Amino acid sequence: MNIHIPTPLRTYTAGAETVTVPGTTVAEVFTNLTSQYPDLKQQLFSNEGKLRSFVNVYLNDEDLRYLPEKEATSVAAADELTIIPSIAGGTDRPGKGASRKNSSSRNTPCCSCCPLL
Question: Which domain does 52 fall in, by range?
Fold first, then answer.
């Protein structure tokens, strides 16, 4: 099955925008994906092995969080997974950077997949 990799995570897939990984369930596909690209594991999963809350996954056009079987959902070779990391920050004023009350965190990313500001 094809997995679409978002730009911030492509450094862990040698720049590949889409990778093909075998599997019969979403969980098995992720196991095979992180075996093929081990550095992705810490980006996608917590130490407890749970998909990180800021990682959104779509099976075809369906949000994985709302599928009854979630990671145990069966997949076919023609299905596609899309990984979309949540991005925080921004401003409602064009041309202005987001303000932060604590200036010591000014150059700190909101998560491990976000670039430094």
Answer: 2-88+96-105
What is the number of structural domains in the chain? 1
pTM: 0.69
Reported residue count of the chain is: 117
Determine the Cα–Cα distance for residues 13 and 17; give it in Å rounded to an integer. 8
Q: Give which of 22, 21, 18 is closest to 4, Cα–Cα.
A: 18
Q: pLDDT by residue for the chain (117 residues), tens digit each?
A: 999 999 888 999 999 999 999 999 999 999 999 999 998 888 888 888 888 888 888 999 898 888 888 888 989 999 999 988 876 655 555 555 444 444 444 444 455 555 443
Q: Cβ atoms within 10 A of the Cβ of 80, count? A: 14
